[in-house]
Amino acid sequence: MLRPCTLRRWPGLQPYEPVWQAMRDFTDQRDEHTRDACWLVEHEPVFTLGQAGRAEHVLDAGDIPLVHCDRGGQVTYHGPGQVVIYPLLQLKRLKLGVKAMVHGLEQAVIDYLARLDIVAERRAGAPGVYVDGAKIAALGLRVRRGCSYHGLAFNHQMDLSPFQRIHPCGYAGLEVTQLSRFYPAVSRTAVEDGLLAELGRQFSLEFIRE
Question: Which residues are annotated as catalytic?
Answer without folding.
Answer: 169
